[in-house]
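PROTOCOL LOG
Step 1. Enter all chains and additional molecules of the complex.
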Amino acid sequence: LAKTTQPISMDSYEGQEVNITCSHNNIATNDYITWYQQFPSQGPRFIIQGYKTKVTNEVASLFIPADRKSSTLSLPRVSLSDTAVYYCLVGEGRYGGSQGNLIFGKGTKLSVKP
Amino acid sequence: ETGVTQTPRHLVMGMTNKKSLKCEQHLGHNAMYWYKQSAKKPLELMFVYNFKEQTENNSVPSRFSPECPNSSHLFLHLHTLQPEDSALYLCASSQGTSGSVYEQYFGPGTRLTVT
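Step 2. Run joint prediction.
Step 3. Record the structure below.
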C-alpha cells in the first residue's frame, strides 16, 4: 500500500485558491489517487479521483504529474464552508485489494478565514 | 430517503449494556463498511462486507459484532464495551466489485459514549 504524506494543516482566506499537495513516492501502477473532505462529526465526502494528468469537477481539480509520485488538490476561491479536513488516499481502484487498501491518514486540516 | 443513514445519531451506554448501531444505504451498492474515528485519530477500518459476505475484519475485538442481513443494511452489535471505545462510528457503502472502491459514501455517524 502506497503511503501518503500531507501537510498537517493549512490556513487560507476567503476567495483564495488553495492547493494541498500529497506525496506518494511508492505509488503502484494500478493505484488511483482519491481525495475526501470531512467536516467535524460527519462522515467523509468523496471529492475527486484521478489516475494521471488533470481531473476537474464542479468542486475541485486534481493535478497529477507524469511520475505520479505526488498529487495536488486545488480548491478554487475557497469560502468559510470549505474549512474541513482533506484526506489523500492512494490504492487500487477496484475492490479485492489486500487488506489495508482502505486507509485514511491524518489528513490536512484546512482553516479558511474571513 | 437517500444516501446512507445511521441510527441512532448519539448513544450513551454503560460497560455492561448491549446495544446495536444500524446503517442503511439507499444507493444500490453492494459493499458496506464500518469505520471507527476516535478523537484526533484517523479513521480506522473495522469491517468490510461485499454482497453480504464479510471480507475483512481489521483485528477488531469480539465485543464488536457486525451483521449484514442484505446489501442495504448493516448492523454493529456492541456488548461489554470499554470507555476507550467511545468514538464516532461511521458506516459507508460503495459499488463493490463493479466500481472504484474508493468512491465511498458515508453516513453521518453515530457518536458513541461508553460510561
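Step 4. Note key features.
The two ends of chain A are 38 Å apart (CA to CA).
Confidence is low (pLDDT under 50) at residues 94-100 of chain A.
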